[in-house]
What we know:
It is a single chain. The protein is of the alpha+beta class. It has a single domain, classed as Sandwich (Immunoglobulin-like), CATH 2.60.40. Helices cover 27% and strands 32% of the residues. It contains 3 helices and 10 strands, in the order H-E-E-E-E-E-E-E-E-E-H-E-H. A hairpin with a 5-residue loop joins strand 8 and strand 9 (105-114). Helix 1 packs antiparallel against helix 3. The longest helix has 22 residues, at 155-176. The two termini are 16 Å apart. Keywords: Copper, Membrane, Metal-binding, Signal, Transmembrane, Transmembrane helix.
Amino acid sequence: xxxxxLLCVMALLMNVQSVSAxxxxxxxxxxxGETITGDVPEITLTFNTSIEELSSFTVVKDDGSDVPVxxxxxxxxxxxxxxxxxxxxxxxxxxxxxxxxxxxxxxxTTSFTVKREEPVQEEQPAPEVKKxxxxxxxxxxxxxxxxxxxxxxxxxxxxxxxxxxVIAYSIIRRKNK
Length: 177
């Protein structure tokens, strides 16, 4: 009987440890730290697992003002949305809050900069991004500062297992007296 209880407790604890993997940001467009010299394309955040429809993101300028996000949508592991194409020069943060397929809420931030050349009296064609920089931006993975808010789902099963072990021990001890 003791062996069965011990095996059950061990099985519960081993199962609890395997549940700790969470969704994380794999890539973004614009990429982390990218400097955009033209219109801002659609914002795309791609995660390592599927995400739920409740997932969202906001865009905030460095002065703290919110940038309107339109057409936000979730498709599999991707969260997309559009912002006004004529963003002012400055730094922007994309703050995301997603619900992973494991039901854990994951929050994080990635940033980019808009740096358009100031208009000159004579019209000049807009400068193109160098091929090397463009290739670097396309292939670089987004480095995000993710703050996972885990609900510590492993604590409850561990407490239940511990309580079951104590109760089983008490029952066995009473029967042996």
